[in-house]
Write a structure and sequence with these properties.
By secondary structure, the protein is mainly alpha-helical. The chain has a domain of about 90 residues. About 70% of the residues lie in helices and about 0% in strands. The longest helix is centred in the N-terminal third of the chain and has 27 residues. It is globular, with a radius of gyration of 24 Å. InterPro entries: DUF6596, RNA_pol_sigma-70_dom, RNA_pol_sigma70_r2, RNA_pol_sigma70_r4_t2, RNA_pol_sigma_r2, RNA_pol_sigma_r3/r4-like, WH-like_DNA-bd_sf.
């Protein structure tokens, strides 16, 4: 295997294993920041050794063993308690697939390692924005660029936010902890946001060669299900779970055999997971039963439920979807929500009505580098027969799209608009 292939393999393994490494080390060391540092050191070691020795049969186990050795060295240097030293030594000698510790499960009310660590990162001493950014970067393995895209913020702003959050954790002496009782409720809104953003990145990846990252979706779904047990009376926990279940029900139909995106109106609805739709609708009903019908996640779930309940694209209740987006926009001031509302208005009232809304968003600072603004505008212009303008809008989207699959889709749409304009010109001649 050539060096370039090894490096690609290392980065692919790293993306998968980083959250597990940080989670395991944090529980052992009870120090999230130190766990991240040791995980980074394991990556550096892989970059140094694997091009020479080859990729191990169990790369995740290799990274964990390396990180644990570095942890032992650090514990020795710091002269930490012998009990922790012995514990780490035993852990290093055990097989990778160790039996779960029943005492650990009894030690908290959460019962999910990754989710527990997200609760830890969402400490009240950090700002709401910093909590989410720190958890997404350190624990969930998202890049600073991906987080910036999720928040529609400059990458430098997110990087500074993460640095400040780490400094706060370090200077305040906060360590790995399991929140209980009122502490869980106090952090729940931030945790819901983190899980929501993890799912979104898995559902439509900001960067890379693939549009979907199924492992992130699965992690978010698992944590969402646990959250409804941790906070059974919290309507928004059920609303978030409903949103994720309903969206995930379409995953099998969202790409073709080559991995290229299939847009909603073109999807084979027979491939939608009906069991997952039923689970999502049950969670949505639970959220409504708890009085959460106007919550951020519950409103979005209600929108997706309209699609899930439609047997064909023509059956979709677009006026209701547009109304729900209007309610969502009244709840949260967001240009992205307004852009989504424009799409629904376009389907309910026609592309001209939607284009008015989209053109009003053209100068929104948050959408300056948002490729979907150009994509939506191009689609509306195409439907209005303004093919040259549509092509220009799609070409803007191509330049801004960070994901290879989305970029290729926008290029195909630009070509379609070019061909339509050319055909019209030939006919008119």
């Amino acid at each position: 295997m050539i060096a370039a292939d090894v490096n690609r393999t290392i980065l692919a393994v790293w993306r998968i294993e980083q959250p597990r490494l940080i989670t395991g080390l944090s529980r052992m060391l009870r120090d999230v920041t130190l766990a991240e540092d040791l995980t980074q050191e394991a990556l550096v070691a892989a970059l140094e050794h694997w091009p020479v020795t080859g990729v191990p049969d169990k790369p995740g186990a290799w990274l964990m063993a390396t990180a644990k050795r570095r942890a032992l060295d650090d514990l020795r240097r710091r002269r930490m308690l012998a009990r922790k030293h012995e514990m780490l030594t035993r852990e290093q000698e055990q097989e990778q697939q160790a039996m779960p510790d029943p005492d650990a499960a009894l030690d908290d009310d959460i019962g999910d390692e990754l989710l527990r660590l997200i609760f830890t990162a969402c400490h009240p001493k950090l700002s709401r924005e910093a909590r989410a950014a720190l958890a997404l970067r350190m624990i969930c393995g998202l890049t600073t660029e991906e987080i910036a895209r999720a928040f529609l913020q400059p990458e430098a702003t997110i990087a500074q936010r993460i640095v400040r959050a780490k400094r706060t954790l370090s200077e305040s002496g906060l360590t790995y902890e399991t929140p209980r009782g009122a502490e869980v409720s106090e952090r729940l809104a931030s945790v819901l946001e983190v899980v929501y953003l993890i799912f979104n990145e898995g559902y439509a990846a900001a960067r890379g060669d693939e549009w979907l990252r199924p492992q992130l979706c699965n992690d978010a779904l698992r944590m969402g299900r646990v959250l409804t047990l941790v906070a059974p009376q919290e309507a928004e926990a059920h609303g978030l779970l409903a949103l994720m279940e309903l969206n995930a029900s379409r995953i099998a139909a969202r790409t073709d055999a080559a991995g290229d995106p299939i847009l909603l109106m073109d999807q084979n609805r027979a491939r939608w997971d009906r069991l997952q739709i039923r689970r999502g609708l049950l969670a949505l009903a639970r959220a409504h039963g708890l009085g959460g019908g106007q919550g951020f996640y519950t409103l979005q779930a209600a929108i997706v439920a309209c699609h899930a309940s439609a047997g064909t694209p023509a059956d979709t209740d677009w006026p209701r979807i547009a109304k729900l987006y209007a309610e969502l926009a009244a709840l949260v001031r967001s240009p992205v929500i307004e852009l989504n509302r424009a799409v629904a208005v376009g389907m309910a009232e026609g592309p001209a009505a939607a284009l008015v809304i989209v053109d009003q968003l053209a100068h929104e600072p948050a959408l300056k580098n948002y490729h979907l603004l150009g994509s939506v505008r191009g689609d509306l212009l195409y439907k209005l027969g303004r093919f040259a303008e549509a092509r220009a809008a799609f070409e803007v989207a191509v330049k801004l799209a960070g994901n290879k699959r989305e970029r290729e889709l926008m290029m195909r749409r630009a070509d379609e608009a070019r061909d339509a304009a050319r055909n019209r010109s030939l006919i008119s001649e």
